[in-house]
Amino acid sequence: MPSARPSTRTTRQRDEIHRVLTTAPGPLTVTEIHAQAQRDLPALGIATVYRTLKLLTDQGLIHPVMLDGETLYEASGRGHHHHFSCRRCGRVFTLQTCPVSLPRGTVFAGGFVVDAHELTLYGLCPDCAALPPA
Ligand SMILES: [Zn+2]
Ligand SMILES: [Zn+2]
């Protein structure tokens, strides 16, 4: 096989990082993305991960999520959803459900017209809920 051109390598890194995010059960930290992508690309450096995350964000394929002061990334196009943060293992999951019954256009006292909402749920993930109490 001829030596890989830089563009080929960049495409593989981009595809791999995008794959990690589309198959994850929720948004991931940069450290988690790096560790998971390294399983297939052992030589992948953290600087490349940051550069690739910016590229994928610019392309609209992923977007950053701020959670508890940390920046995580998730694949775009998952529709309306919420995040569940496990207090025990620290993993964040995407829940395709909405516990808020608040129709668009709801007006609160004082004239505040609601057109969106954001919330994070906290508790124990299924794995942690099955463990004996810490
Ligand atoms: Zn957990
Ligand atoms: Zn909602």
From TrEMBL:
Binding of Zn(2+), residues: 86, 89, 125, 128
Record family assignment: Belongs to the Fur family.
Keywords: DNA-binding, Iron, Metal-binding, Repressor, Transcription, Transcription regulation, Zinc
Domain of life: Bacteria
Record keyword Iron present: yes
Name of the protein: Transcriptional repressor
InterPro entries reported for this sequence: FUR, Fur_C, WH-like_DNA-bd_sf, WH_DNA-bd_sf
Cross-referenced Pfam families: FUR
Cofactor: record remark: Binds 1 Mn(2+) or Fe(2+) ion per subunit.
